[in-house]
Amino acid sequence: MIHDAYDVYENNPTHFQTLLEDAEKPLYPGCSKFTKLSATIKLYNLKAKHGWSDTSFNDLLKLIREMLTETNSMPFSLYDAKKTLSTLGLDYEKIHACPNDCILYRKEYLDSSDCPTCGMSRWKVNKKGKVMSEVPSKVLWYFPPIPRFRRMFRTREIAKELVWHADERKHDGKLRHPANAPAWRLVDNKWPDFGNEPRNLRLALAADGMNPHNMMSSNYSCWPVVLVTYNLPPWLCIKRRFMMLSLLIFGPKQPGNDIDVYLAPLIDDLKELWEVEIKAYDAYHDQSFTLKYVLLWTINDFLAYGNLSGCSVKGYKACSICADKTHSKWLPHSRKVSYIGHRQFLPESHPCRRQKKAFDGVQELRAAPKPLNGREVLERMQACKCVWGKTKGIKISVEGNSKKRKKKELAVSSVENSYFKKKSIFYKLEY
């Protein structure tokens, strides 16, 4: 079970005690600026920032130990430094992935050497055509969030701030905090056991793509997926130290709609931890409790919103409100799709509705389309079935009609049949 893997402190109390000792032990006798823990963390940050090799980092640690002959506080090697950091709950998991974004080599594919969808090798192939069996072609970095959430409650000051929304928030009917939002209240009303515990966490997921090497080049893509904790006060929840990196997707191609493949480990944890009891210790109230959390929102730009939700954000049906009723028109000379039906959102008596010359030569008499409700969205997504991966030929099925299309034709085919291109992986969550 997942919670068994995260019971670091409860099953191994000496780990946390060792961590406290390292945080208080001075680097050398009389040193008041650095402790063993802080020095290790700062050196490891420099290694990551400047790209030091493991060998050079080991040599540096050896040299520092020789210089500071009065102490044995410094770690002997990179391995010892990583052991200390893993005690902090900063461990990560490297999951091999198909280079075409078809699958992750986990669960039933853990021991596979080839992708069952596209047939690509799990391992890199050099220029001579030789398979490098120890070098994966693509890797997903997964940072489990549970140890970090539990560590937050271990700090008395942070544990107090995590219940600020229940103890110190003003209740005056104004939207001062996400706790005043309808989504927050809906969860509290539908699952009273969850809502009655103010320490249960409400999260948001932020995802977007960037190019870390050169802003003018698109030869490389990096997609960080960050979790934001909204239990904290507004002035703390968006601080860097409380925004937790959970996934790091990188490679020469953007994941696009196949991002669901990479979100699977995080969604599986969210799904199981909604049902499994996770024990945590609250330092502020000096008691243990059962920790749960719920994912309420996603934060992203419009293009990433389309990838996460599975809806169309370009072409003839690019409006997330109008959906299939989007008023779009192809401009043959500029070779672009224009959206000129915005007058239908004006009041019925607005004078712009009757103007012709200033717009497209037609009076606007239509009423504004109604957004789809949750049941309608789910019914439409149920009809869309997609095979993951960036392969040359892909088999799709929409409303029972199975067709084989090229990948570049998939978007057109999906838009012609439905506003949605896939059923989002977030629907695996009960809430």
Task: Walk me through what this model shows.
- A hairpin with a 4-residue loop joins strand 8 and strand 9 (287-291).
- The radius of gyration is 26 Å and the shape is globular.
- The protein is built from 16 helices and 15 strands.
- The strands form 5 sheets. A 6-stranded mixed β-sheet has the order 1-4-7-6-5-10, with helices on one face. It has a 3-stranded antiparallel β-sheet with strand order 13-14-15. Strands 2-3 form a two-stranded antiparallel sheet.
- The protein is of the alpha+beta class and 431 residues long.
- The model is unreliable at 1-11 and 393-417 (pLDDT under 50).
- The chain has helices at residues 2-5, 8-11, 13-24, 36-50, 54-67, 78-87, 146-154, 156-161, 164-167, 182-190, 192-195, 234-237, 259-275, 302-309, 374-382, 407-417; strands at residues 93-96, 123-125, 131-136, 139-142, 201-207, 221-229, 243-251, 278-282, 287-291, 293-299, 328-331, 336-339, 384-385, 393-398, 401-406.
- It folds into 3 domains: 2-87, no CATH class; 143-161 and 186-309, no CATH class; 315-428, no CATH class.
Count the domains. Answer: 3
Q: Give start-end ranges of low-pLDDT stretches.
A: 1-11, 393-417
Q: Helical residue percent?
A: 25-40%
Largest sheet strand order: 1-4-7-6-5-10
- Mean pLDDT, all residues: 80
Alpha-carbon distance between the termini?
21 Å
| Number of helical regions | 16
Largest sheet: 6 strands, mixed
Structure classification: alpha+beta
Estimate the global geometry from the Cα principal axes.
globular
Q: State Rg.
A: 26 Å
Strand tally, please? 15
| Proportion of strand residues | 15-25%
